[in-house]
Amino acid sequence: MRVDAQRNREQVLAAAQQLFADRGTSVPVDEIARAAGVGVGTVHRHFLTKDDLVDAALIASCEPIFGLLETAAADPDAGHALEQLLLELTEHQSRHRGLAERMRETDDLSPAVVEVKQQIAAGLRAVVARAQATGQVRADVVPTDLRLLFAGLATAATATGQSCSTEERLRFVRILLDGLRTPDPSPLPPLPAPPTAPAPNS
Question: Which terminus of the chain is less hemmed in, N or C, by CB atoms within 10 Å?
């Protein structure tokens, strides 16, 4: 890729990241092009569809999350690692509205975004499992619970403005943490059995 083309691509991606972070992924392509200082045609030369641009911007916005997961994995105190991870995840997503919106979605995601979400979920499961092994998190929490937990964090992160302050988001995370690590937890209802596969036609 030519130097000027690479520079244009980086400008478009940076502009999209900032606008999606501030306002969500509904920002139109022509506004992204203006912010990047290029034409709409230049945007589409690098990203054929808006979905391609959204995916690239959101995947780039996930890079700091992998750093948070590495920091949590290196923390010798498993309980502290989980606490800091959840607090920082929520704050990161609150600064990246488009990312939080996409993180709570389950349908119509590209394979690339699904893969990134799975990698993040796997990292979160590892942090929780380490805290469970040390007795700092209730043992009956399973991956299904963590999927909903992560969606809840994304929802809390996007409840900004007059509807939810930073302090209220932090209260939510603290309540969630206490639910994970309470020494006398309420018993959880059993999960439904997975659906059985239909019998093959004879």
Answer: C
Residue 164 Rama label (left phi>0; alpha psi -120 to 50; beta): beta
CA distance 179 to 166: 20
Q: What is d(CA 91, CA 32) in angstroms, rounded to the nearest whole number?
A: 24
Q: Which ranges of the chain would DSSP assign to H, the alpha helix?
A: 3-23, 29-36, 40-46, 50-61, 63-74, 78-94, 97-103, 111-133, 143-158, 166-181
Question: Which tokens go with 195?
Answer: 């659906």
Instruction: Determine the average pLDDT of the residues in 162-191.
Output: 80
Q: What is the per-residue pLDDT across 114-133, written as a single tens digit (0 to 9) for each?
A: 899 889 989 999 999 999 99
Q: Is the pTM of this model over 0.85?
A: no
Burial 164-184 (b: 16+ CB within 10 A, else e): beeeebeebbeebbeebbeee
42 half-sphere exposure, CB direction, 13 A CA radius: 20
Classified as helix, coil or strand, 73 is: helix
Amino acid at 1: M
Long-range CB contacts (within 8 A, 24+) of 180-184: 180/82, 180/128, 180/131, 180/137, 180/138, 180/141, 181/79, 181/131, 181/136, 181/137, 181/138, 182/138
Q: Distance between CA 60 and CA 13 in Å, rounded? A: 9
| 147, HSE (Cβ side, Cα atoms, 13 Å) | 8
